[in-house]
């Protein structure tokens, strides 16, 4: 058994133990009510963590850069803009905000539409490349964020509190129907991804090498970026934006597994992501007693690790 395979088994065992700890720790009282809620929360965490790690692994390979995450495309900022815009126009008691299924479908639909239009526009000419796409995504993300702040200043303070709840990731109010819907969407995306899995190891060598080895570069990259957009949209709409999670878990997977084969990196990233989210949620519930959110802990650790990566790369230059 190879070293990477053994490490994956270790990660899988830790993830399973943490999941069992979360489900059964201090289980008392009305078990018939508490147990299903904990299980649905865990399923939401696994789906979100897996989707973010999966998408970020693909995104880093496509961009050939390990400090970039799909957040630079502005999808997180677009999600917050949508939530604020709905409240700004219809109010916090509108059907769209009260019905989580409608809100979920609208948010995913608009985020996917935005990604498709962005890719279609930017990949129309041969002169445009992936870095131009990232630049435009960064600019649009900043614009969405600024416009969101502007509307939040104008809305009613009570409705601003609703927006605040949407700005931070939470797995405590996940709708069961959203989880089932997400499972179906991720399964469809996973099956579609299998057509392009064989190209990832070659794409990691860079554009010129991939083209020379016969990879239809633009065709494959466009489809992979659409898969990334769908996965990030699902994860963000399910429990909220977690900016640094993907950066953290994928880089840890590379460092821990010491391999560039995507079979191991993708599975390892997903397992580390599940460990981080389940562990983070356990800390939020049992230690901080809901005084903070899981995104605060993940973003703090991820932000520190991001600075570490920048300093490390700076020394190598």
From TrEMBL:
Keywords: Cell membrane, Membrane, Transmembrane, Transmembrane helix, Transport. This is Iron complex transport system permease protein. Belongs to the binding-protein-dependent transport system permease family. FecCD subfamily. It is found in: Cell membrane. SUPFAM superfamilies: ABC transporter involved in vitamin B12 uptake, BtuC. It comes from the Bacteria. CDD domains: TM_ABC_iron-siderophores_like. It comes from Virgibacillus natechei. InterPro entries: ABC_BtuC-like, ABC_transptr_permease_BtuC. It is a multi-pass membrane protein. The chain crosses the membrane at residues 6-27, 39-59, 104-123, 129-155, 176-194, 224-250, 262-284, 290-311. The keyword Repeat does not apply.
């Amino acid at each position: 058994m190879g070293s990477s395979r053994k490490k994956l088994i270790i990660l899988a065992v830790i993830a399973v133990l943490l999941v069992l700890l979360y489900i059964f720790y201090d289980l008392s009282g009305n078990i018939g009510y508490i147990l299903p809620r904990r299980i649905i929360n865990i399923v939401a965490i696994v789906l979100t963590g897996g989707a973010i790690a999966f998408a970020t692994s693909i995104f880093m390979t496509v961009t050939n850069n390990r400090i970039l995450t799909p957040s630079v495309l502005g999808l997180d900022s677009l999600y917050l803009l949508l939530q604020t815009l709905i409240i700004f126009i219809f109010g916090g008691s509108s059907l769209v905000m009260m019905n989580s299924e409608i809100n979920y479908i609208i948010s995913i639909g608009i985020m996917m539409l935005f990604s498709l239009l962005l890719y279609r526009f930017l990949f129309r000419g041969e002169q445009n490349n992936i870095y131009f796409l990232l630049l435009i995504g960064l600019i649009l993300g900043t614009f969405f964020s600024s416009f969101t702040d502007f509307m939040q200043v104008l809305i009613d303070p009570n409705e601003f509190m609703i927006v605040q709840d949407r700005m931070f990731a939470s797995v405590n109010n996940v709708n069961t129907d959203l989880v089932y819907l997400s499972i179906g969407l991720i399964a469809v995306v996973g099956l579609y991804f299998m057509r392009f899995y064989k190209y990832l190891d070659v794409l990691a060598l860079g554009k010129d090498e991939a083209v020379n080895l016969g990879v239809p570069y633009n065709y494959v990259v466009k489809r992979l970026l659409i898969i990334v957009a769908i996965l990030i949209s699902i994860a963000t709409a399910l429990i909220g934006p977690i900016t640094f999670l993907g950066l953290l878990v994928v880089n840890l997977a590379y460092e821990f597994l010491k391999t560039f084969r995507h079979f191991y990196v993708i599975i390892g990233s997903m397992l580390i992501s599940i460990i981080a989210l389940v562990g983070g949620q356990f800390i939020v519930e049992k230690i901080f007693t809901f005084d903070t959110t899981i995104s605060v802990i993940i973003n703090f650790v991820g932000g520190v690790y991001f600075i570490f990566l920048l300093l490390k790369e700076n020394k190598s230059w």
